[in-house]
Inverse folding.
């Protein structure tokens, strides 16, 4: 399978997925650490994908949605943004609403 | 210390957005020694160009404006992009 198809499968196969550096328990970067903690707070069953666990995904995810940094949050297949956007929407309550809306859509 | 890179970033943002306010903080020292190349910056920018744009679109506009630098000198850029009317609503 083509790498972009493989990424699409992960993005579309999970309602809420955060691609991050390291794991939620052992994040390898401050941005991934903050983003994963905030996301976990509002969505316990989100998928947390460690990009270092699959170097092909690490190298190709930036061109999937033309977004060049990690972490990257996708909800219902759509790129929401990176750490700053996630944190801003966490703090103003939007993230919780988006996650809730995604769950009812399914 | 304001580095040459910081000046270049500011100039590119000013010419692209004509911002009402722009603050660029060099946070590279906070990340020293974690092995990453390039600078870490935090940006607060207020500009009309962000009106009617989602956060994602705003970030894309900033990344596009700094395109050449994002691929080389800048390792991480934390962005807060607001419109003038959003600033007025803040307490």
């Amino acid at each position: 399978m083509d790498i972009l198809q493989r990424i699409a499968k992960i993005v579309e196969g999970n309602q809420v997925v955060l691609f991050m550096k390291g794991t939620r328990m052992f994040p390898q970067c401050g941005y991934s650490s903050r983003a994963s903690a905030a996301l976990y707070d509002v969505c316990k069953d989100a998928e947390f994908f460690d990009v270092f666990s699959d170097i092909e995904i690490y190298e190709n995810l930036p061109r999937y949605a033309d977004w060049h940094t990690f972490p990257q949050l996708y909800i219902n297949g759509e790129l929401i943004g990176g750490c700053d956007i996630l944190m801003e929407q966490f703090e103003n309550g939007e993230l919780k609403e988006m996650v809730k809306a995604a769950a009812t859509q399914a | 210390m304001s580095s040459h890179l910081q000046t270049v970033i500011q100039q590119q943002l000013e010419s692209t957005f004509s911002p009402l306010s722009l603050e660029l903080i060099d946070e590279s020292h906070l990340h020293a020694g974690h092995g990453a190349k390039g600078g870490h910056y935090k940006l607060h920018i207020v500009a009309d160009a962000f009106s009617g744009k989602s956060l994602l679109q705003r970030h894309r506009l900033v990344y596009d404006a700094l395109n050449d630098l994002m691929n080389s000198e800048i390792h991480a850029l934390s962005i807060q992009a607001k419109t003038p009317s959003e600033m007025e609503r803040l307490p």
